[in-house]
Structure formats: structure tokens, C-alpha cells
Design goal:
Blueprint: E1 5-8, H1 12-24, E2 32-35, H2 38-50, E3 57-60, H3 76-86, E4 91-96, H4 101-111, E5 115-118, H5 123-135, E6 140-141, H6 149-152, H7 159-167
Parallel strand pairs: 1-2, 1-3, 3-4, 4-5, 5-6
Length: about 170
């Protein structure tokens, strides 16, 4: 399992929940860190690289509340871009209130994230499954994401189509 994990999350209770999930996976307290700001996450990643002890997994939110603290980077997507430039092999799991599959798919394609888990019901189990999956070098996209009608490839039948189907 991952030996060094960084959590970038600005909500304290969510931080605790993620840490509890990591404990359940056997990831020790002393091998993980958490920060509330993207800039602090980047400093931790840089420090890990300088000390030849890089992080293996970054769990980040996409949006961070502006509390007045001066930040160069204030969005999770910006953090992901810079983190991947610094450490291309860093596994990245997005844990966000965003529930749209289109957003998750674009992050996988454009920023090469490894997993996307929306916050909500059963998110702890989903998070655990995501971490186990990406540890095996596979991508993970939560089944709890809402898909648009176009993405689901819903079929819309005309009245004529329905008549033909009834006759069959």
C-alpha cells in the first residue's frame, strides 16, 4: 500500500474522514500529511522531492474556500497541474463535491489524474476502493458520478420507432 500520502483539503471534518479511511487501509499516521491550502501542498511535495522521500499519492479537493489567506494557487486543478510538472509519477485522487462525470473525465484526460471520487453517501467505501485501484496502477472513476444524457447514450424513440418495436 502507499507509504507516503498528502491530503489537500480545506474542510477539517473531511480531512479526518480521509485519514480514517487511510488508517483502515493500513497507511500509518506518520506517513501521511494534510494541508488546508494548495500552496502548502506544493511546498510539501517540493520538500519531499528535495529530501528524496517523495509522496506517492496526493488526495485533493478541486475547490478551496477563500478565507483571506494569500495564496498563489487556490484551485485543486491548478495544484494538480503544478504537482504533475514537479513529480510526473505522483498518483492523484480527486475527492470533490463535484458530481459530474464530464468534469471527472476531463481531469483524467487533460491532467492525467488517477481517480475521481465525489463526496457524498458511501464516499468512504468509494474512496477506499479508489485508493486500492490506483495502487494497482489502474484508473478509477466512481460509479456515483452523474452522467449527462448524451454521455449515457440514452436512446430516444419516436412514436414511429415504438410502433415498429410493438409490431416486432
Amino acid at each position: 500500500m502507499f507509504k507516503k500520502v498528502l491530503i489537500a483539503e480545506d474542510h477539517e471534518m473531511t480531512n479526518f474522514s480521509v485519514q480514517r479511511t487511510l488508517t483502515g487501509l493500513g497507511i500509518a499516521n506518520d506517513t501521511r500529511n494534510y494541508v488546508y491550502y494548495c500552496d502548502h501542498a506544493l511546498m510539501r511535495i517540493q520538500k519531499g522531492l528535495q529530501e528524496n522521500a517523495p509522496y506517492e499519492l496526493l488526495i485533493t479537493d478541486l475547490s478551496f474556500i477563500d478565507d483571506g489567506t494569500q495564496q498563489k494557487i487556490s484551485k485543486g486543478s491548478e495544484l494538480i497541474k503544478v504537482a504533475k510538472q514537479l513529480q510526473p509519477d505522483l498518483k492523484i485522487l480527486v475527492f470533490s463535491m463535484e458530481h459530474r462525470a464530464e468534469i471527472a473525465n476531463s481531469l483524467i484526460k487533460e491532467l492525467n489524474i488517477d481517480a475521481f471520487v465525489p463526496k457524498g453517501r458511501k464516499d468512504a467505501q468509494d474512496l477506499k476502493l479508489a485508493i486500492e485501484t490506483i495502487y494497482q496502477d489502474k484508473k478509477y472513476l466512481s460509479s456515483h458520478l452523474k452522467r449527462s444524457g448524451e454521455e449515457r447514450k440514452d436512446y430516444h424513440f419516436t412514436d414511429f420507432d415504438k410502433i415498429i418495436l410493438q409490431l416486432l
